[in-house]
Amino acid sequence: MVEIARAEELMPTTVGRLLRLARLTPDIVEQFMMGCQPRRLTLLWLMRNDIPALWPDQRQMPERFR
Q1: Which pLDDT does position 62 carry in this prediction?
Q2: Quick one: which of 28, 36, 39, 65 has the most CB atoms within 10 Å?
């Protein structure tokens, strides 16, 4: 993470937050790409909050924002 942060001129904590997004379930990513996610479920929210590790738990996340 430190090497990526240095290469991209970012803080290591920022890289860590961004890397967590890589484990998002594909259907949630697709919702974001199509702009169909709940309005309050933002990229900033995902970066600042814990994302469940298991995809079934992640799939319940958008329902909490509707």
Answers
A1: 86
A2: 28
